[in-house]
Structures are given as structure tokens and as C-alpha cells.
UniProtKB/TrEMBL annotation, chain B:
Family the entry assigns: Belongs to the GST superfamily. Zeta family.
Pathway stated in the Swiss-Prot or TrEMBL entry: Amino-acid degradation; L-phenylalanine degradation; acetoacetate and fumarate from L-phenylalanine: step 5/6
GO BP, one annotated term: L-tyrosine catabolic process
Residue ranges constituting the GST N-terminal domain according to the UniProt record: 1-82
Protein name, UniProt field: Maleylacetoacetate isomerase
Keyword Isomerase tagged: yes
GST C-terminal domain mapped to chain residues: 87-206
């Protein structure tokens, strides 16, 4: 494939952008361009193989379909479903409720609102993980669910959510953050990370 | 299989369409989101789905939630007819559109957020749907044939029709979205979209029945 390096339109602190950076070597294969206006006006957006995609999980699925190693989805359909259920729970059920647009609307109540959304989402997730988790969210292999978990926990910490009630989430998060891909893609280490937030 | 759903839940409707398209018969356990303070909050339902949301599907000895995770499972295990194209780029476009609706529009105008918006709820819902549809109308210029992506019904179409129904409920002006409207109309002529319609469910209230 002689084509140019894929371009990731992202924002250092966007949890959705972080999910995409987590692919393979932590996103180092992407040539980062942080433009105000990208074709889709969304972060993340990925320009790759002659197309531009938005929606982090659509992007991640495309990368999984076209660059299948290492795998981010189990082969067993029931385990795949569990991975997708957890990923979607975070990507549809938690994150959108506490993204910038909704928070702006909440005004002064924004922190409390974000904490409530994340807490109730994590409460449900903690329960689900009792049935699915091994070393990671589903069994012992890193999957799309884990790519969604870590950035969402980072959001939780930013909003000062009490993580006490979610020991499984915390354990898995800690284990994932020891992996190279999760470190190198971390918001504190991006080209657009402000100086005061840099690792 | 047992589907836990609500007649008017757009997320439940997505799954009903998939079950109809794939010819999978199921039993419905209605979960009324408004009665009794919201039946999704009952302890019994929490056992079914800790997320306390519909839809949930009990099938093959497991219980799944999240409409697109459920639909992907049906696709993985009952692959005919197909709801995802074989070409990876077209698949990505289908997923991008489905996720745009399922993560980018619907959650912003679901019950929980609307409650928080109080009097501003209708205006808020209209704004979320409008800006979402504005982006979608543009995307469809590159992807649409007869349906959202080319000429085959896909997961994107399963998300589109219920979201348009939501738009109509909130009286969103559909004038600026002719492609969305055209595709919606074409899909509603298909049997699976008719039989799964909110107006024709076991738990549809009498006054809303078709």
C-alpha cells in the first residue's frame, strides 16, 4: 500500500479520539493534523485508504476489518456481542450525555450532571463486568470494550466521580494503562496537549 | 427469543426491524417507560439489563442490550439476509451512519435528557435532531442509493426510520432533508418496517394503534 499515511483529526482530550489512537501502536501510524474544520466537522475523523470516516467505533471496526492483527474482537459471537454491548454502553449510553454540547446546556449544574451520568453508567457496567471480565473487560484479550473504558474512566476522573463503588472498572483500567498502546496514546502525550497538561 | 421493549422506543424498533428482516420470531415482554415511574427501573428488569434500558434480547442462552450490539449478534449468527455490505469501506459507511444516529442523535433526545431540559425539551430535541440530520443529509450525498448505503437495506436504514419517527413526534421540519425523507419513505414500504412499526405492537395503546 503506497498510499499516504492516514490522517487522524482529533483533540488531545476527546475520549472518542483517544479510542481511535489506541489501535495497534497507539496511533503512531497516523499523521496527526489538528484542524479546526475537518471534512466531517467531528472528532475523531480518519482519512484512510481514500475515504474519510467519522464515529470512533465505525472507524475502529473498519481498522479491524482491514488490518485484523492483532484482533480487537473475539471470534466467538457471544463474546463479540458482549464486547460490543460494553463498547456501545459507553459510546452511546454514557459519553454523549456528558459531552461538550450537553454540558453547555446544563450551565452551572454541569459537573453534577456529568457525575450522575457517569456514575449510573458505571454502576451498570460494574454489574455487567461481573459476568464478562477476565484480565480485561471481556476475558483476557484486549478488545474494543477496553478501548472505550479507559478514556471514559479518564473523563470520570476529570469530573471527580468517586470510583470507590467500581472496583472492577478500576482494576481493568489500571491493567490497561500498563500497556504501551494506552500510554503512548494518552491525552497527556499528544502533539496538541497544552504545556500545563503534558506528562 | 424474548424481546424486552417499548412500542415507541426507537432503539427497540431498530431491533424489531432486524428480527423481522431475518425472519426470527420472538415473544415480547413490554416494558412501559412511563407507567409506574418507568418499569425499566423495576428490580426485576434490572436483573435483565443493569443498564435499565430497552431494548434487551434474550436469545441462545444469553441476554444482550444495546440495539446495535444485538443487531450485530443477529448478523453474526443468522447472516441471511445480510445487513452489512461485504466491502469494508461500505461497511464502514453503514456503521458510521448507524453510530451517528445511535450515539450522536438519539441519546441526546432520549427520556432522561429531556426530563432534565424541562420546558425547553421540545426545542432541545428539535435542535439535536436537526443538527444531526443536517450532517446526515450531507453524508448521504456520498453514500446513498435506494437506501442509506447503496441499494441494499443495512443497519443504517434500521436506525434511520425510527429516528425520523422521533423527528416527526417532535415536529422537526423535514424540509431541509430531502434525501433522508426519500429513503425513509422507500423503507416504510418494506414489510419488515411495517410489521415492526410502533403503531402495530402488542403494547401500542388503543388510541395510537394503526
Amino acid at each position: 500500500m503506497a498510499s499516504e499515511k492516514p490522517i487522524l483529526y482529533g483533540y488531545f482530550r476527546s475520549s472518542c479520539s483517544w479510542r481511535v489512537r489506541l489501535l495497534n501502536d497507539g496511533g503512531q501510524q497516523f499523521s496527526p493534523e489538528f484542524k479546526e474544520v475537518n471534512p466531517m466537522r467531528q472528532v475523531p475523523a480518519l482519512k484512510i485508504d481514500g475515504i474519510t470516516l467519522s464515529q470512533s467505533l465505525a472507524i475502529i471496526h473498519y481498522l479491524e476489518d482491514t488490518r485484523p492483527n492483532p484482533r480487537l474482537l473475539p471470534q466467538d459471537p457471544k463474546k463479540r456481542a458482549q464486547v460490543r454491548m460494553i463498547a456501545d454502553h459507553i459510546a452511546s449510553g454514557i459519553q454523549p450525555l456528558q459531552n461538550l454540547r450537553v454540558l453547555k446546556e446544563m450551565g452551572e449544574k454541569k459537573k453534577e450532571w456529568a457525575q450522575n451520568c457517569i456514575s449510573s453508567g458505571f454502576q451498570a457496567l460494574e454489574q455487567i463486568l461481573q459476568h464478562t471480565a477476565g484480565r480485561y473487560c471481556v476475558g483476557d484479550e484486549v478488545s474494543m470494550a477496553d478501548l472505550c473504558l479507559v478514556p471514559q474512566v479518564a473523563n470520570a476522573e476529570r469530573f471527580e466521580v468517586d470510583m470507590g463503588p467500581y472496583p472492577t472498572i478500576s482494576r481493568i483500567n489500571k491493567a490497561l494503562l500498563e500497556l504501551e498502546a494506552f500510554k503512548v496514546s494518552h491525552p497527556s502525550r499528544q502533539p496538541d496537549t497544552p504545556a500545563e497538561l503534558r506528562a
